[in-house]
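Ops channel
N.P.: pipeline sanity check, posting one input/output pair.
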């Protein structure tokens, strides 16, 4: 997961026993891969090396902690999802605990994801749901299976259609020559 550049925290919101980022995030400094619990995590309590944790952990906050517009519905320990903002890619990432694969398809989550995707598209951004290395782009009217897209370039394309702007999202290899044309 990318560092969260938003440092202003939403008043009254804490991790409060949530340690899901300690499972879902890759932590390069600890050689911890995505999707496995960090060996320094006391699940449900917190980090046992908190005072000396790596910088990438120190600066990380999920959108539940930093974005006022994210409702209580998205508390990671309850939703089984961690939302992050990747500003350099103009992307919202929704990292799903694979033990709860498909939870994001529940209408209570999918409806707001579609609305958030519409907002991101207006900024030529995207919203990607990640279940492990598998990505799904969320659009206001559909989902697009991106396959194993973790290390690929996510490309958002828009064009005028008969009913207004139409969008498509694809995952391209980073050396794809089409990237030089956009």
């Amino acid at each position: 997961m990318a560092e969260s550049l938003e440092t202003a925290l939403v008043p009254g919101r804490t991790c409060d026993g949530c340690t899901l980022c300690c499972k879902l995030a890759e932590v390069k400094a600890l050689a911890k891969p995505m999707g496995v619990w960090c060996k320094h995590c006391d699940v449900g309590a917190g980090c046992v090396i908190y005072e000396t944790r790596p910088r990438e952990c120190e600066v990380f906050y999920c959108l539940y902690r930093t974005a006022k517009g994210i409702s209580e519905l998205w508390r990671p320990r309850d939703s089984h999802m961690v939302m992050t903002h990747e500003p350099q890619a103009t992307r919202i990432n929704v990292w799903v605990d694979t033990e709860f694969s498909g939870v994001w398809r529940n209408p209570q989550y999918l409806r707001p994801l579609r609305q958030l995707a519409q907002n991101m598209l207006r900024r030529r951004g995207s919203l990607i749901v990640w279940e492990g290395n598998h990505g799904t782009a969320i659009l206001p009217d559909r989902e697009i299976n991106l396959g194993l897209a973790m290390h690929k370039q996510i490309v958002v394309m828009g064009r005028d259609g008969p009913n207004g702007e139409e969008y498509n999202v694809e995952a391209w290899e980073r050396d794809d020559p089409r990237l030089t044309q956009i």
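N.P.: looks fine end to end. The beta strands are 41-42, 46-47, 81-86, 91-96, 126-131, 134-138, 143-148, 153-161, 164-172.
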